[in-house]
Amino acid sequence: MIDLKDTLTDIAKAIVDHPDDVAVEERKKENGETLLTLRVHPDDMGMVIGRHGKIAKSIRLIIKAAANSANEKVTVEIE
Q1: What is the pTM of this model?
Q2: Mind listing the pLDDT tens digit for each residue in 22-36?
Q3: CA distance 16 to 14
Q4: How far apart are CA 74 and CA 18, in angstroms?
């Protein structure tokens, strides 16, 4: 089974300048959906979001695809 939290952490650490400041919090919602909250260093926020949110959308797409293969529902928030 795919560990979505580790996958998101690895993706984020690969694109930021401060990989030690990357943190992912995992919570289960009442409806069974998983909420992953990605926190990065403030200087890295632009790298994670990208122009017009393209990188953030791509990260969400990858995580949702991985969750779909594991028959899970997931939401990614970036803070």
Answers
A1: 0.92
A2: 999 999 988 889 999
A3: 6
A4: 25
